[in-house]
Specification:
The chain is mainly alpha-helical. About 65% of the residues lie in helices and about 0% in strands. It folds into 2 domains: about 30 residues; about 160 residues, Lysozyme (Orthogonal Bundle), CATH 1.10.530. It starts with a helix and ends with a helix.
Length: about 190
């Protein structure tokens, strides 16, 4: 009887610890707007877009940077207007950037556009998303930062270097979380 009680207590501790871990992960890495992200991912993995949103705004639709970047994916107003035009959004108004569905659609389109511009190089696209196209193109043209003009050997902005690291770390986490989140409910609890 005593062994059964100890086993029951151990099972309860494991269950509670697991629930606490899941809650902590959900607080730190929320799964929000996944349907909008998946609908707008284009050629990109939804986990990458979720990672960018997390790195940019930690899923706060009202986020605004000191430089004026706005919304979930921290779009600069001129970039948002330009991308909205490229997307054929004839009715776009600057205030729409605060709407999650519009911000994610434009930000995802822009990130896809950058990936295509840089021939599929995610790191160049992310660097341009963070530091701007002009900076990345200057770095690629400078042998101090790019030996071949196609990849960056060195990123001179510590913020951009750290941004790439953060996005890649978060993408690995979101790959797992999205895989778990999108399992049918009956599969989530199977051994």
């Amino acid at each position: 009887m005593k062994r059964l009680s100890i086993a029951l207590v151990l099972v309860c501790i494991v269950v509670l610890a697991t629930v606490a871990l899941i809650m902590a992960v959900n607080l730190r890495f929320p799964i929000r707007y996944l349907d909008i992200v998946q609908a707008n991912a284009g050629e990109l993995e939804p986990s990458l877009i979720m990672a960018v949103i997390h790195a940019e705004s930690t899923f706060r639709p009202g986020a605004e940077s000191h430089a004026g970047a706005q919304g979930l994916m921290q779009l600069m107003p001129p970039t948002a207007a330009w991308m909205a035009e490229q997307m054929g959004m004839d009715d776009f108004k600057p205030e729409y950037v605060w709407l999650p569905e519009v911000n994610i659609a434009i930000g995802s389109f822009y990130l896809n556009w950058l990936v295509n511009l840089y021939d599929g190089n995610i790191d160049l696209a992310l660097a341009a998303y963070n530091a701007g196209l002009g900076n990345v193109n200057r770095w690629l043209a400078d042998p101090e930062f790019s030996a071949d003009g196609q990849t960056l050997d060195n990123i001179p902005f510590p913020e951009t270097y750290n941004y790439l690291r953060r996005v890649h770390q978060r993408q690995r986490i979101y790959r797992v979380l999205i895989a778990i989140y999108t399992l049918p409910p009956w599969r989530r609890h199977s051994p």
